[in-house]
Amino acid sequence: MAKKKYRFSIFNDTTHEEIFSFRAYGVLSILTILLAVIMLIASVTVLISFTSLREFIPGYPSAQSRHDLVQNALKIDSLQNEVNIWRLQLANIQRIATGRQPIHIDSLLNLHGSRDSIAEFSTEYYRDDSLLRATVLKEEQFNLTAKSHKIEQIEGLHFFTPLKGVVTEEYNLAIGHPYLDIAAEENSTVSAVLNGTVIYAGWDDENGFVIQIQHDNNLVSVYKHNSKLLKKVRDKVTAGTPISLVGNTGTLSTAPHLHFELWHKGEPIDPSQYIKF
To answer: Are 193 and 221 in contact (CB under 8 A)?
Structure first.
């Protein structure tokens, strides 16, 4: 039995001239068409997968969108680290105030650290925070009088002068300047004003090298824009101990000076009322 042949021709409708002609067996024609379709699909798939044409597909993210997603993820991770550092500092202040050992910052930032220790810190932080909130709410529940800003228990303390220099900016809470700016030669020695424990010693883009000390009587002293820090977190210091050197670090600083803050029970106080500069 002779195999059936097929002929596909294209003619000019006006002159009836044959323009194109294709002859093939029936099965061969089907296989040829299938192979052509498969090659076409494969070519389109490869072209879309490995070229920038895929960005023209509706709903497919562009290269800029993917870049923005990565940058946003990095920013979120950085912000989470900042939040964790602030939580650690608050937890350390609470631990020092209650006579416990502060947690070292490496235990939170070390990527190879134990997840159990980080989880334990988070649980302890939220528990202490909840207890503190409950205590404050209980004390304020029946308090109908205005909040008193009277400073107690520090008038008799002997403060050591942190730096001998010229006060260029006075303490003025009304204009949002709750601290002193003391001008001095660069690398002059900055001293602790009272006995205490260093609760923070690090770098801040706006304030440069910063050191904070927790003292008795709910006092905290803060020293900013230093050129170098001489103490680290958890170091015990006494009044007059050198803790840093005067600098001009941080975007908020325009000349060598010491930015000095004094806090009592979470509120800023005027250092010049207790310290002679």
So the answer is: yes
